[in-house]
Amino acid sequence: MSENSRIEGAIHSAELQHAGKRFALLTIDFPPINAGSQPMRQALLDAISALDPSQVDGVILRGAGNNFVGGADIREFDAEAKEPHLPEIIAALENLPVPVVAAIDGAALGGGYELALGSDARVATPNAMVGLPEVTLGLIPGAGGTYRLPRIVGVPLAIDLITSGRRVKGPEALKLGMVDRVVEGDLEEGAAEFLAGMDGKRLLRQESVPASQEGSIQSAKEAALAKAKGLNAVAAAIDVIEQGAVKSADEVLPQEREVSLRLRRAPQSQALRHLFFAERRAGRIDGNPKSLNVSTAGVIGAGQMGRGIAFALARAGIRVRLVETNEAQLSAALTAIGGYAEREAARGKESAAQIAGRIEGASLETLGDCDLVIEAIVEDMVVKHGLLGKLEQVVRKDAILASNTSYLDINEMASVLRDPSRMAGLHFFNPAHVMRLVEVVRTDAASPETLATLAALAKKLRKLPIIACVDDGFVANQMFAAYRQQAEFLLQEGAMPREVDEAMREFGMAMGPFEVSDLAGLDIAWARRKRQAESRDPDARYVEIPDRLCEMGRFGRKTGRGWYDYRENKKGADDLETEALVIESSRTAGMDRRSFTSEQIVRRLLATIVNKASDILDRGVAQQPGDIDLAWVYGFGFPRLKGGPLHWARQQDRAQILADVEQMVAASGKGFVVSPALESLLSG
Description:
This protein is an alpha/beta fold. The protein folds into three domains: 3-199 and 209-265, Alpha-Beta Complex (2-enoyl-CoA Hydratase, Chain A, domain 1); 296-470, 3-Layer(aba) Sandwich (Rossmann fold); 482-546 and 578-682, N-(1-d-carboxylethyl)-l-norvaline Dehydrogenase, domain 2 (Orthogonal Bundle), CATH 1.10.1040. The protein contains 30 helices and 17 strands. The chain has an eight-stranded mixed beta sheet with strand order 12-11-10-13-14-15-16-17. Strands 1-2-3-4-6-9 form a six-stranded mixed beta sheet. A three-stranded mixed beta sheet has the order 5-7-8. The longest helix is centred in the C-terminal third of the chain and has 21 residues, at 598-618. The two termini are 36 Å apart.
């Protein structure tokens, strides 16, 4: 065993006896998740090599703690793969003359499940979780997973499981054939009993592939490719699976390994791994303060955001009191929540009645025992101050107060409280029960426990929290406002909304900026612009087109018209009135309209995003660069395969990005400057 492996963990060897037979027990103990790091692989290979097969009738391989092997150590992926490689360990297991049973509790994912597939049998607890999720990181299994799995589940199901990266719990894994037995009691005893009943070795690499129904393989391929959304690993996995079904292991396993390593070095996998690590760093509070449990919550405001927040809380098992003074609004909200619950019940474990039953209409006076109260009322500081003043008279002294405001100054909001340390922002994105991103907004007075509680709550709601500081629009909306403003500049200079939206969708965005504005509602940004009107530099460039649309009552999808017309076309049709406003804006500004290529539009808008990201990181509004990428991927549909705008920018020619930003600043007029931190940010 290497020095590193002694520091990081060990393989424990012991002996079990069952039904007159002796079994070697190898326990993988590399906390916290038994990741398949180089030290772990070396230690396991050493332990296998040290076995004396003449002294035992079989081997049980299991993991210490709560996992079998949680997968590869992804931190190693940016370097050259180091020996011993996982295929060597699997070959050592296969070459043992006695059978090997993998005893799985917790996660056996990726290389961990390939290790189990390299064993002669697999037993698992009901809490076991097995799967080959490599495709979700832009690569394919590289230690025989594409070859061995089809031999126990068939090619069509293997295509589905591998290309989706789906994780399968123990009972379902038994039904699918992914494990051979589910053990309800002691796992080691169950594995020993199963092993005692085995009649020699059973190597999956020597098994034939089960016959498939006619057309099922083609159907599985078509379904997987339809969901791939440009992910190269999906097609690569299908190709290797199909070849493995008709060729020998000696032919296909080296090819699988080569493809996996090649994809690991490719841009898509690098982008997805960047997001993987960014997600794990997101939402951390310095000092790891204790978070408080939230079992009962109040939500004030039953509009679109309030009802979505209430449902997200109830879905997570939290009892909710929904406060709304408008009875019609409350009734509409409870009806809508019932619909959300029906859809959730169709794919979940709980009934719609169970989920919706956790939500009740209530009054402000009933919130006294709530652990948390979230306000989601009108964006008006005076109204919010009035509410908080009343609320403080009702709730417990240790209850946390949170605002879902998109733009307002939460420091000012909390100033009316006797104890402002218990208040912070909890900014959901619309629709709140669907969108994964949540901003936890750190006020000047917020306690670490308040922030930790809100971040932990977001994770409990299956959300991704990023930490932001108080600033106009916080992280995500402040950046989107700059992006949207630049898109409006492009309109004034000669583009039309459809051209801009199509260019960004061609780049990979889920929606273009004007489509997003129509979905979110133009009135939200309009309210912000009206608040800023008095402080706006009169010489700064300003495009009045969205104001004009709002003055006409065109707030987007919810009113049937915004940038586009949705009255007869749910996807939005081009609108002659919008186009007339665009042309009139150019004339009023004294600009000669010109045409733009899609590439010019994309580079201009991305330069805006990157420059603004540098600015808000430099000012400490965002906690770390990865949070910017997460905000764009999960808040605004930036393509995951490009890793977010900052990761994308760092993969580009730095001189080109700097030139793009310079050109954007020059075109934007007064008030626009190149962020002084941009060059260092691009350098990583």
